[in-house]
Amino acid sequence: MTDLIRLTAAEIAAKIQAKEVSAVEVARAHLDRIDAVEPAVHAFLHIDGDRALQAAKAVDEDVAAGRPAASPLAGVPLALKDVLTMRGAPTTCGSKMLEGWEPPYDATVTLRLLEAGLVILGKTNMDEFAMGSSTENSAYGPTRNPWDLDRIPGGSGGGSAAALAAFEAPLAIGTDTGGSIRQPGSVTGTVGVKPTYGTVSRYGLVAFSSSLDQAGPCARTVLDAALLHEVIAGHDPLDSTSIDAPVPPVVAAAREGANADLKGLRVGVVTELAGEGYQPGVLAAFEAAVAQLRELGAEIVEVSCPSFDLALPAYYLIAPSECSSNLARFDAMRYGLRVGDDATRSAEEVMSLTREAGFGAEVKRRIMLGTYALSSGYYDAYYGSAQKVRTLIKRDFDAAFGQVDVLVSPTTPTTAFGIGERTDDPIAMYRADLCTIPSSMAGNAALSIPCGLSACDGLPVGLQIMSPALQDHRGYRVAAAYETARDAAQGGPLITRVPELEVAH
Fold first, then answer.
1. Superfamily of 3-308+391-494 according to CATH
2. Can you list the positions of beta strands (E) in 312-414?
3. What pTM did the predictor assign?
4. On the chain, which terminus has fewer CB atoms closer than 10 Å, C or N?
């Protein structure tokens, strides 16, 4: 590896502004890394080197002319999850249904990245339409975990997380519906943040579950995540669910936390999110992280949130129901794939043949689950009841945050499992999001930060830190303080221990 690809995003941006390195050099270093390791990792679905170099050149021209940087991350390369539209680049959502589609508009997140001077390297692989926990459901093949190429990188945003862990990009964007930023972050040893629902625009984010989907930052350090968070967050009149409120001071919190203790802070350990079914190595790493928080001066309190035990089944009624509605637009009549289009077939037959060919097994499973849950005679029993559970989960969070400042848990019950290990067992696959779903259901902020390696298999474990809605900065403060202490105790950042990949020659 070159020194450039090992730098943090904050370090890269500072060196570009100081003229110690050019944005073009940085972009080329990462594109070279992508060329070298992509055959093994498969983190990307689309790479646009020419466009990335043009964007980098524009940043260098600004620096040479003495113009102010467009943002604190100007010139930093980034990998964009392929569920966000980008003008002039394909957006497939990991599905054959949208193969070859180039949207005529930018998602608000994409536009904000471009206006901030970030260099978008390409679009990353994902579970089809963001449905999955392993990135094995992509129609274009699975992404592999750089820590162990025989294991999954999490999902649905495994491509974004793997790109970070493989040093193909210092920053990435993911989306989180039930854990699709945090769970990949956990199993790849990276930082993944789900912002408060409504604080990052969903305009141009191809919808899976509209009341749950949320774009967020992925990075290798807490500060880098916070810097990216500030770029993409903020009110957007194009998104009817966007909250018109100031962006929480996440960068200030990350900087403050990195140089402070946690005295006076109350941290709640959720008793329902640990125990039976959790890998021993995960529990041991989590307990060590809690002990570290205590050493930093935090008061540790056990908190019970009984409705969290109902979050998983409720989620798998709400999310598939919204998926059934949102994916009805892929009907072969307006855009995307069309199969069997000839004079002998009716429109209904063309729709049926197209949806059969275009959707993968997991997407079909969730459409059928959701359609059933919304059907006449079952709506109140299933979808309606699940929404009542959602209210109970939010009340549990409200009660918990009345006692403590933040809540913590493992991010996911196990480390990365083997590719193919759970493909025939949907329930086991769904349990990967056991800890992340409650925050998604309530809409509050949550992040995952690496907290060590499991003694069982030597793979990364994630610590989840949950904050009240619009108090995202609390999580950043705790995460930054913990990151500083963790690195001091472990002799450096965890990500530096990822095995070197065999590169193409």
1. Amidase signature (AS) domain (3.90.1300.10)
2. 406-410
3. 0.97
4. C
pLDDT digits (tens, 9 = 90+) for 369-387: 999 999 988 888 999 999 9
* Model confidence pLDDT, tens digit, residues 439-480: 999 999 999 999 999 999 999 999 999 999 999 999 999 999
State the amino acid at position 5 in one-letter form.
Answer: I
**Residue for token pair 């625009």:** 201
| Closest among 500, 489, 486, 469 to 214, alpha carbons compared | 469
Q: Among the options 138, 156, 242, 467, which is catalytic?
A: 156
In the block, tokens 């903020």 appear at 234
CB–CB of 161/408 below 8 Å? no
Lowest mean pLDDT among 278-292, 341-355, 456-470: 341-355
d(CA 212, CA 446): 13
Q: With 60 as the cut, is the pLDDT of residue 69 above it?
A: yes
Identify whether 180 is a catalytic site residue: yes
**Nearby residues of 314 by Cβ (< 8 Å), 6 or more positions away:** 385, 386, 389, 390, 393, 441
- DSSP letter for 212, please: T
What is the distance between the alpha carbons of residues 206 and 224, in angstroms, rounded to a whole number?
Answer: 25
- Active-site option among 71, 95, 134, 180: 180
Rounded to 10 degrees, what is the CA torsion of 131, 136, 141, 147? 130
Beta carbons within 10 angstroms of residue 63's beta carbon: 18
d(CA 21, CA 16): 5
160 is catalytic: no
Out of 22, 71, 81, 123, the active site residue is 81
**Does the annotation mark 22 as catalytic?**
no
